[in-house]
Specification:
The protein is mostly helical. Among the domains are: 67 residues, no CATH class; 50 residues, no CATH class. It is built from eight helices and no strands.
Length: 190
């Protein structure tokens, strides 16, 4: 049985497990909660699909620093954002008020190309353009499809004329050519 520091009681650990908004934090709290309930490290590893070595490291981290050691620690690694800096995002907002250089609508790849030019880089990954749009509060804006009956009679006729013709025959579920693996057999009575 592992020794769990009493930073939080067993019931508090359970409450944190159920209330955590971040999936990583919820799983970490669950592992510590199960250990605090008296389960062994191999049992908790089986229940949570964590490795035993990782559980031992997580428990050690929890015992040393308490609940602040649980959850995704990568957000607090001390590094500043490399591309999506606040100054660049502030310059992006007014730029989006104007159409992009090629016309059309702004997309993630178009924003990434603008960011590359603004940062003096050769290129920026298209995903960074999408992340920049999300960072300033933009969302996907796609018009809802119109109901076919909303089209005028002329539009419906034009659609019918330009649509590819389909055969009226239904495809057969049986093969049309005889089998090549054996001679033909008679299904009639002799």
């Amino acid at each position: 049985m592992a020794r769990v520091a009493t930073h939080l009681s067993v019931s508090e650990l359970e409450r944190h497990t159920r209330a955590a908004k971040e999936a990583t934090a919820a799983r970490h709290y669950q592992a510590i909660w199960l250990l605090a309930k008296g389960h062994t490290v191999p049992e908790v590893a089986e229940m949570t699909s964590f490795g035993t070595r990782w559980l031992e490291q997580l428990l050690s981290r929890y015992n040393a620093r308490g609940p602040t050691a649980l959850g995704d620690q990568r957000r607090h690694n001390g590094r500043a954002p490399t591309i999506l800096k606040p100054a660049l995002l502030a310059r992006l907002k007014p730029r989006l008020a104007m159409p992009p250089g090629d016309g059309g609508l702004w997309t993630g790849p178009k924003v990434a190309a603008w960011m590359a030019g603004a940062l003096g880089l050769e290129k920026v990954a298209p995903q960074r353009g999408w992340e920049a749009l999300r960072a300033i509060g933009w969302t996907i804006q796609v018009p809802r499809p119109r109901h076919p009956q909303a089209a005028t009679a002329e539009e419906r006729e034009a659609f019918k004329k330009n649509s590819p013709r389909r055969s009226r025959r239904k495809p057969s579920a049986t093969r049309r050519s005889p089998s090549r693996s054996s001679p033909a057999t008679s299904t009639g009575s002799v």
